[in-house]
Specification:
Layout: E1 2-6, H1 13-25, E2 37-41, H2 44-63, H3 69-82, H4 86-102, E3 109-111, H5 112-120, E4 134-135, H6 139-151, H7 158-173, H8 181-187, H9 197-203, H10 208-242, H11 257-265, H12 276-284, H13 294-338, H14 341-355, E5 357-358, H15 360-373, H16 376-383, E6 389-392, H17 400-415, E7 419-424, H18 438-443, H19 454-466, E8 467-472, H20 477-483
Helix pairs in contact: 1-2, 1-3, 2-4, 3-20, 5-15, 6-14, 10-11, 10-13, 11-12, 15-17, 17-19
Amino acid sequence: MFEVLHSSAGAGKTHALVRHYLTHCMRSEDASDYRQILALTFTNKAAAEMKERVLQYLEYLAAGTKENAQIEDVIGHLQKKLHLDRDTVQARAKAVLGHMIHHWGDVAITTIDSFTRRVVRPFARDLQLDHDLRMTTEEEYYRDLAVDSLVSEVGGDPAITKLLTEACQQLLHEERKWDPEFPLQELSKELTKERSIRPLEELRDFPIAAILELSGRLRREENAWRGKARAIGRKAMRFIQDAGLGAEQLAHGKGGIFGYFRKLSEFQEEWPIAGTNARRPIETGKWHSSKASAQQVADVNAISGALTALYDEAETLAMNEYAAFLIRRAVGRELVPAFTLHSLNEHLWKVKQEDGVAFFSDLTRKVSEVVKEEPVSFIHERMGERYHHYLIDEFQDTSVLQWNALLPLIVNALDSGGSALLVGDAKQAIYRFRNGEVQLFTDLPKIHGRGDDTVEVERERTLERFYVKGTPLASNWRSASVIIDH
């Protein structure tokens, strides 16, 4: 059975998860059935809390505790789902508790990162990974080291020298801080983002000459369009100056149409927004201010038609071409540094190797490669055990690669009579937390970003075949505890 539960905050989720876990633990007389259950959370604190709650509930059940509403709910659930009487529930709870205490290492309630490392460990030699790799969350520190290492190669590596020289020229042209490391440091964040894997691979072998030519062309086009916008503003300002007029003689002074054209004549990057006061002369026909003399009023009216035409020309230009200007500017600004990312990635790998560390994203990526290329049975054999039941908490923060790593194992469990329970709340998603992809949760049972190969198609069909439904958990544990009774 494949279940997806939408659990709002305060809905008694932990109680529901533990009850579901205990149902699988006590399904048979075999006290070691818990070894077939894998419960995954996102933090060590959550994993510890769930373990503590499992032991607590088992102790209450084994002792035959009464007058505890949560325990009574669990007993009622076990009686209904497993067709057990209270004495049998107590006996099995006692047996499971005893077995767990003597084999605590077999209790698979852990974080998804810990499980990822557990999956990849048997393949360490195949993937050229060090068994003693230390996980680190200091990603920014190692990215900065990689940037420093890359920049130090300027003058030695011709390709890097050309790219970084172009980057510096671009910074000078844009009058930005002359620091080639800054754009690299910003872009280095993409090295740990799953969404960047495929684009970076596609950019890897792009010819440097073509990159530099494209960068120069984008800069020329950007300058040409900037000049076009400025020309309109400057032409309007000349009309005003040649008529012997200034801001005081025009309606609303510097806050009106005069200020609009002045900003346009100095245009750099942000298009001036024509506010109410700037548009009012065009809409009402009153172009002069109350301070203007009779002659100045006549002079203002004489150029009003030309200013209206220039305003229309500017707004049409912005409507039709400003978006393209922003795109050229954005691409041109980051283009050169972006094409150094594959070199930066190599330097990042080196500095991590020197310290014997790895990012969690590294292992997730490796696991995703393993499960995509190897038969599921082989993966289970290398892991040394097989899980039949999966419980994944806070699924809205699961990344695509993490889901891809778990997917074949879950599909295999479903096809073998096992189950999977995914619990989360899209509203509580920590946006892009460690590559989290909330769409995975909202689109289930569909496979996010599914390929066209037959394996992925069959996996999605398997999920759909066993999928129950997503049901909002109620706002209290009594109601929530009934939801899993599908």
